[in-house]
Design goal:
By secondary structure, the chain is of the alpha/beta class. The protein contains 7 helices and 7 strands; from the N terminus they run ααββαβαβαβαββα.
């Protein structure tokens, strides 16, 4: 039944993505950015509901009081496709995402992404990619947008970790904007290369804001990584287990 329910959800995800993508691709360019963001966020909301109804997969939030009133840089754990859907709804409306440029080449989906003005980088470009994040990210932050980055750069299975890239820390150092770290255990329920969505509750934790003024890039990155990884390690790591944080 898990596979059947997951397959039905996958079909609904494809359909909803195509519909919302066409809306953004066709009329998104003439709408104010806030309205484009709202359309994308509603896509995230719809899919969170569909996952709950079809797969029995829900989520629980902690630390919402840590979300700052003003926009910030968001650095999140990346375990699954779930957070790429959920954070659209779980963060304030106007968002700019740092993502790999190859996603922009996907018909309809890529056009919809373009309408929401992401920072599309070549992950193999090294310093050029970091410079692009700083340049475009600074502009978007000044426009009042939230800049969302997965510092590991790719999905990492639960229990594993990958070196954190310094793009987000560099952006924070150059601009002085604070960082909101996010930890979660979505990969336990939706594996990074799996179709199955296991029923249960994903735990999402918003961390204390890291004020970056006076810190070096290395210090910023270490604070982010230490908080995210220690928090993730305290979250349920198997289906049906209880949280310990």
């Amino acid at each position: 039944m898990i596979l059947i329910r997951s397959s039905i959800y996958f079909l609904s995800l494809v359909i909803s993505t195509a519909l919302f993508g066409l809306i953004l691709a066709v009329i998104g360019w003439v709408l104010p950015f806030r309205h484009r963001s709202l359309i994308a966020n509603l896509w995230g909301y719809l899919n969170l509901k569909l996952m709950k109804w079809l797969c029995g997969l829900d989520y629980q939030l902690s630390g919402q009081e840590n979300i700052p009133v003003e926009n910030a840089i968001v650095l999140s754990k990346h375990q699954s496709a779930w957070e790429t859907i959920a954070l659209r709804w779980l963060l304030p409306t106007e968002q700019t995402w740092v993502l790999k440029r190859e996603l922009m080449w996907i018909p309809i989906f890529g056009w919809a992404l373009a309408a929401n003005q992401p920072i599309a980088i070549n992950r193999g470009a090294g310093r050029e990619a970091a410079a692009q994040i700083i340049s475009e990210g600074s502009k978007r932050l000044k426009q009042g947008r939230w800049v969302v980055i997965f510092p590991e750069g790719t999905r990492v299975a639960p229990g594993s970790r990958k070196k954190y890239g310094i793009g987000g820390a560099l952006l924070a150092k150059k601009t002085g904007y604070p960082i909101l770290p996010i930890a979660h255990n979505a990969g336990v329920f939706w594996r990074r290369r799996g179709l199955k969505k296991y029923p249960g509750t994903i735990h999402v934790v918003y961390g204390p804001v890291i004020n970056t003024k006076g810190l070096s890039v290395g210090e910023i990155n270490n604070q982010v990584e230490n908080w995210i990884e220690s928090t993730v390690s305290s979250l349920p790591s198997t289906h049906g287990s209880k949280t310990t944080y």
